[in-house]
Design goal:
With 76 residues, chain A is α+β, with helices and mostly antiparallel strands. Helix content of chain A is 32%, strand content 37%. Chain A has a four-stranded mixed β-sheet, with helices on one face. Chain B is an alpha/beta fold. The chains are: A alpha+beta (76), B alpha/beta (204). At the A-B interface, α1 and α2 of A face α2 of B.
């Protein structure tokens, strides 16, 4: 089961802030740990996938909830 | 292929052998090289108004977040984006594609695109100040960072900011007016080799 090591709330923020804040948060956690990001920017669905592909981190989950989009990223 | 170099008699045979080995090894090697190198981007920022201040800083901060190496060469009006006191404004005059919408009031009011004749924009004192204020408010409402914030994020992520020495001289600026993080004051001759080696090169 995946346990979330750190949570980041980027709701209300527009591009490029969610990605930049995600990068900063990823830098703070250890390899193998999971970062949970919540966002409302509709562009973040594709942007977060692209960010993970570019940076080599693993996008474990990408879901839409009542609170916005929720992403789980495992640091590589 | 079981042949070794010692028992390959002539060059033609050697070439064939080399070719087939290269075909086998090269794709993997190239992929390896490609995966291990850091992508890079060079931006030439030439405009200093509020609307045009965003693209270079958004692209640069995003690229830096992706782990890319980024250099921005600020020239002409772009130099104003390096000022300690960043005071970028916007003019709808001569900017016909700019939507003129109000960032407050009921939705139907916000959705309305105001027709603004040039004569009106040119004639009313303070029109640009109002337009600048409205644009800043629109951006704030939509959760967009300010230009100052984005510049700060770029600097934090080690984006190299380079000023064009010639335009600094032409406009009569002094180095002390710019943020101390400006890495260099150089000419096109110094920046072009950087741009030449970068994967993405943009003129904004």
């Amino acid at each position: 089961m995946t346990t979330v090591a750190e949570k980041l709330d980027t709701r209300g923020m527009s591009c490029p802030l969610p990605i930049i804040k995600t990068r900063k948060a990823i830098n703070q956690i250890k390899c193998g740990e999971i970062l949970q990001v919540t966002a409302t920017d509709p562009g973040s669905i594709k942007d977060m996938a692209s960010f993970c592909e570019q940076t080599g981190n693993r996008l474990v989950a990408s879901n839409e909830s009542a609170n916005g989009f929720v992403f789980l990223i495992e640091k590589a | 292929m079981s042949d070794t170099i010692e028992n390959i008699a002539d060059n033609t045979q050697l070439d064939t052998w080399l070719n087939s080995r290269l075909d086998e090894l090269l794709p993997g090697k190239l992929q390896q090289i490609d995966a291990s190198r850091t992508p890079s981007m060079s931006i030439i920022a030439t405009k200093g108004t509020l609307d045009w201040a965003y693209p270079p800083f958004i692209l640069a901060s995003t690229a830096a977040a992706l782990g890319w190496e980024v250099d921005i060469f600020f020239t002409f009006y772009g130099l104003l984006l390096l000022k300690k006191n960043l005071d970028a404004g916007v003019s709808p005059l001569g900017n016909p594609a700019m939507p003129m919408k109000m960032p407050f009031g009921p939705q139907w009011f916000q959705d309305y695109d105001w027709p603004m004749p040039n004569l009106l924009m040119a004639g009313i004192p303070g029109f640009e100040k109002v337009a600048t204020g409205l644009m800043k408010k629109t951006f704030r409402n939509k959760g967009v960072a300010t230009v100052e914030e984005l510049r700060g994020l770029c600097l934090e992520a080690d984006v190299n900011m380079i000023a064009c020495q010639m335009t600094v001289d032409v406009f009569g600026f002094d180095a002390s007016e710019f943020i101390p993080e400006v890495t260099d004051f150089v000419g096109a001759t110094s920046f072009l080799p950087v741009a030449q080696k970068s994967d993405v090169c943009l003129f904004i």
